[in-house]
Design goal:
747 residues; alpha+beta; Rossmann fold; 5-stranded antiparallel beta sheet
Length: 747
């Protein structure tokens, strides 16, 4: 079946053509080109400052929006210091808020810290997530070694809030600043800041029945980061209870121990049982929780929960197992009774968002939907009646950055100018006056101030590392927070990136990008390395820093052309473009990648017999699938941490795109590389960490078993105990040395 498909598409693609849209080039003088410094794997992945520079860490708005706080580190080793500074928005002045000595004075002794035996590590390792402003802006909450510390900025005094050796998770300050909540031992707790009194709110939590704590699959696939929420009046907390008893345990073995220590993680695979979830509300004083009515069907997801402004009602989003119907419920916190005020249905799947916003009067709410084929913003009254569609067109309002109720604006990033870029916009609540606030071509990531008067713009393009600027909400740049210049990049004479439009397998346009060798000679023929991810709702071809990696620049210096194409299923072009992979992962993605190969072979400077492919995770899956189903299109391929059988991957992600295995057995079979192992013709290398809790190492083992049966001989590199990204420096350097040599030897 695949062979027929590939021949048919290749015949269609002989007339594929391309338009060069734009070329982004670094400013590289002739002298720099002549003395270009070679990039090396050691410089890219070894120790030393990043070639991406360094953004300001721990950047946060104060609650009133008048200050920006950030972490500033100085010194090395024992001389290292970590201070917290603030930037005054009105004046641009910077001043020290809290110095390292005062922070370190809060740190517990070594004896109090779990897992330490010598000098306390303290709070010197503050990350952006490790401190929080109090709601009034008069204190900071710190986390160190799983314990909580409070520093009063006015009194300049600090204290420890949690005692003992039991650690805490997910701390939050109550809206009135009186309490700090946290999760400990699968239960929800609060501590009163003034007195230090600790109250355990839930009592029945345990490993298989978790209160206010997420399982593995919810944060991984539903993009939810917490399992409890304070009411605005600080009197109650809503929380998820997750019953994991139905979920199958899966072994993750640590082969580096003599005994082969095994973690039995609960991991719901496609078609298997999920955790059973319910929503509770409990008083800050304790007592029995009240359970909200979320319907009688247990096999559902609860991906979003939030309070309305009156502290009496809770909005609960309920998603069916097939992920084709999303209900917005409003429940009465006092009784648990609920009603559906809005329902979304889609015959393919529903992509979730964090765009729900209730106005201060609780009479209206903001919602986003892909019902038109593109994500746009809609204004409703509290009964669920549509008042106004605020944005429209064949582009996407990708999220909501914030709402200025006083002046009547919604702020949002969107693809309106170019799907390869992200720009920042605002629109009036009556749907008029949509304005693009960002001007520079590239990618803009925005953080709006709480008072909606300013925003932080983290901006980059494909040739320029990200920088951070402060703007007023009319788009005017107020000051540069961090220019993040990386002078060293000029030494390497980075090659320009070309953006292209290539005909896909169905005859419509696909976005692509190309990186040619720095000393490109059109009379020569070059081998090509295709970089792919290819998965649904993701984008490789974009105008942002990192879209073309330093490793790709290094390989271009070594004489390779680099090429990427965003196939059907990719983000940025609307829901229907994504949905073309529904129930048949791999098929249309590969067809479009083969269209890219056909285009490459039409170029006089491409050696069509020397085209390789590589990718990681879904990109590793795509590499395997392409090497097995792409005929002789690819001479070599490197696959990192690939899914090789979709029955081996988790419920939420896999079923969203493939349905249940029992309802789509042939789709699962044909989409899985293990089915096609005997078709391998080129040279394939696979790398996988044995400690991967996302794409389990068993995926690679089972594909290798099929290769053995078929008499095929791929290269396999195993990284003991490493996780999905193989992120530790030693292993990562080893990996990319080997990948580099693999392409040099075989392509």
């Amino acid at each position: 079946m695949e062979g027929l498909m590939n021949r048919r598409f290749l015949m269609q693609l002989t007339s594929a053509f391309v338009f060069i849209a734009v070329v982004f080039a670094a400013a590289t003088p002739i002298e720099a080109q002549q003395t270009r410094k070679p990039l090396t794997v050691e410089r890219i992945y070894g120790p030393g400052p990043s070639l991406s520079g360094s953004l300001t860490q721990g950047l946060q708005w104060s609650p009133d929006g008048k200050l920006l706080s950030y972490v500033q580190r100085t010194g090395q080793g024992r001389e290292a210091k970590t201070d917290i500074w603030v930037l005054e928005v009105a004046s641009g002045a910077r001043r020290l808020l809290l110095d390292s000595a005062k922070i370190q004075a809060l740190a517990p002794s070594a004896a109090e810290q779990p897992g330490t035996s010598s000098q306390a590590t303290g709070l010197g390792r503050i990350s952006p997530q490790r401190y929080q402003w109090s709601p009034k802006g008069d204190a900071l909450l710190f986390v160190s070694q799983g314990h909580l510390f409070w520093f009063d900025l006015k009194a300049e005094t600090g204290k420890r809030l949690t005692a003992g050796k039991e650690t805490t998770e997910d701390p939050k300050i109550s809206p009135d600043g009186r309490w700090v909540s946290f999760v400990r031992q699968y239960n929800l707790w609060v501590v009163e800041v003034a007195t230090g009194k600790t109250v355990q709110l839930t009592k029945d939590g345990r490993e298989e029945l978790m209160n206010a704590k997420l399982d593995w699959v919810y944060p991984e696939e539903l993009d939810i980061r917490t399992a409890y929420w304070w009411s605005p009046d600080s009197k109650q907390l809503a929380f998820l209870q997750m019953d994991e008893r139905p979920v199958t345990r899966y072994p993750v073995v640590n082969f580096l121990t003599y005994t082969g220590e095994t973690e039995m993680m609960r991991y719901p695979k496609a078609g298997d049982a999920n955790p059973v979830v319910r929503v509770g509300v409990i008083s800050v004083r304790g007592g029995r929780p009240r359970w909200m009515d979320i319907g009688t069907e247990k096999d559902i997801y609860i991906p979003r929960v939030e309070w309305l402004r009156d502290s009496k009602q809770i909005a609960i989003q309920r998603l069916n197992r097939g992920q084709t119907k999303l209900d917005l419920l409003v429940a009465e916190a006092s009784t648990g009774k609920s009603r559906v005020i809005l329902a979304e249905e889609d015959k393919y799947w529903i992509n979730l968002s964090d765009d729900l916003y209730f106005f201060q009067d609780d009479k209206r709410f903001l919602w986003s939907s892909e019902r038109s084929g593109f994500r746009h913003l809609y204004l409703y009254d509290i009964s669920g009646k549509l008042l106004k569609q605020l944005t429209k067109g064949e582009w996407e309002a990708t999220s909501v950055a914030g709402v200025d109720e006083k002046n009547g604006y919604v702020y949002f990033p969107a693809t309106e100018k170019n799907p390869l870029e992200r720009h920042f916009y605002r629109v009036s609540l009556d749907g008029t006056g949509m304005t693009r606030l960002t001007k520079e071509d590239g990618s803009h990531s925005i953080s709006l101030s709480p008072d909606a008067t300013h925003y932080i713009d983290t901006y980059s393009n494909v040739m320029t590392p990200a920088r951070q600027d402060l703007h007023s909400t009319d788009g005017t740049r107020v000051l540069v927070i961090n220019e993040n210049k990386v002078p060293e990049l000029a030494d390497y004479g980075l090659a320009p990136v070309e953006y292209l439009k290539v005909r896909g397998a169905d005859g419509t346009e696909r976005y692509a990008m190309m990186l040619k060798p720095p000393d490109f000679d059109p009379s020569k023929k070059y081998p090509v390395i295709v970089y792919t991810y290819g998965g649904p709702h993701a984008q490789v071809v974009r105008n942002g820093w990192g879209a073309m990696s330093m490793w790709h620049q290094m390989m271009a210096q070594k004489g390779y052309t680099i090429f990427s194409l965003d196939n059907r299923g990719s983000a940025g072009r609307g829901h229907l473009f994504e949905a073309q992979v529904h129930r048949k992962l791999g098929e249309n993605e590969l067809a479009d990648q083969l269209a890219g190969v056909a285009y490459l072979k039409s170029l006089p400077y491409v050696d069509g017999a020397r085209i390789g492919i590589h990718g990681w995770s879904y990109g590793g899956y795509m590499t395997c699938y392409a090497m097995l189903n792409g005929g002789e299109a690819f001479k070599v391929g490197f696959a990192g941490a690939p899914v090789t059988d979709w029955r081996q991957y988790d419920t939420i992600y896999t079923e969203r795109y493939m349905g249940l295995p029992k309802d789509n057995p042939e789709g699962y079979k044909q989409s899985s590389p293990v089915t096609h192992a005997a078709k391998l013709k080129g040279k394939l290398m696979i790398a996988h960490g044995t400690g991967d809790d996302n794409v389990h190492y068993a995926n690679t083992v089972q594909l290798v078993e099929e290769f053995i049966k078929a008499g095929k001989y791929p290269e396999v590199f195993v990284y003991p105990g490493r996780g999905h990204g193989i992120s530790d420096p030693t292993a990562r350097l080893h990996l990319w040395r080997r990948v580099t040599q693999f392409f040099l030897d075989n392509l």
